[in-house]
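SEQUENCE WITH STRUCTURE:
===
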Amino acid sequence: MNDLCADIGFKSINHEGEQLCGDHVDVVEQSESSTVIVLADGLGSGVKASILSTLTSKIISTMMAEGLPIEECVSTIAATLPVCSLRGVAYSTFTIIHLRENSTAEIIQYDNPGVIFIRDNAVTDYAKTEMNIGGKKIIKSVIDLQENDIFVAMSDGCPHAGIGTAYNFGWKLSDIASFMEMLAPVGYTAKTLSTILVDECNKLYGGKPGDDATACVVKIRKRVPMNMLFGPPSNRDDCDRMMSLFFSKEGKHIVCGGTTSSIVSKYLRKPIKASLNFVKSDIPPTAEIEGVDLVTEGVITVNKVLSYAKDYLEGNESYEDWSFKKDGASQICQFLFEEATDINFFVGRAVNPAHQNPDLPINFNIKMNLVKELSECLKKMGKHIKVSYF
């Protein structure tokens, strides 16, 4: 097995005046290295379109993840979903990106804008085969994957952006391809690339989208392990075992918490160099220990990371708040959200006496819940998570 993995990110904006999006993206993991991604665009907008696109993506992604052929998936969709009585056209359009063992990508497209493929930071053409399934023209492609390959799938709300305002005929697919090609060398994550593209579409719509617009980006990258230590062990005799396991792991090492930092300092026999530089007034300053990549305060900092993680999975509105800042929470976000693919949490179960003050809004359960919620958020980002308790 190769050491490649897929970074997957998507973002949508709703048609002006609609509470629900008519586009839907589903990501289903077949195994640790095989994934099915479906972007479906329901007919029209609003509730009806949302139901159609959700059903389409759910049915296709579930069937394909179970190994059923595309012909069966499409015929099932055609038989399951209704035909519009007004226009006589069916259900929804869709784009499927099926990653097999992180070595090949099978792309299946039906009536959505063509998938943009960027390799070596340049938009690259790829072979397409036409298939006829149930009277529908399906385009299929198979691509051998390389590191830094980028796939950009979208609903037709993206190329329709700017019609009658910024552009007479919308933002052409070739223009979108050039726009994404310009961003490719910067090293943004898939989520950030999809956010930038959809935000640009929103600007072209003048902030009043005339259609639902969704972008889904898949970026192929090498696996990057990361390790985070949070809290001392419940049994003091486990300190050395916890430290030896933590530092034996490949990748960067993040240490959170004052007591935890003291244990690390003692284990490494290196002093803690404290900082009084408050980069952000609500985040405690970081420190330094030789041999550790980042040393931060504990609960307050990790709680801020969790709030950024929740936002990242939704609108990604706080991206500018953490992406270039140097406070502890921002640096953890940069490590976990952007760099890491595989994250090992080493969590101590010791109860901090300082947290037992009834006037403080911190207790043991909050600390454990922080780890649980952050792990769940990171899993939704496509990270592989392992949590070890001591």
About this structure: The mean pLDDT is 90. The chain has two domains: 4-222, 225-389.
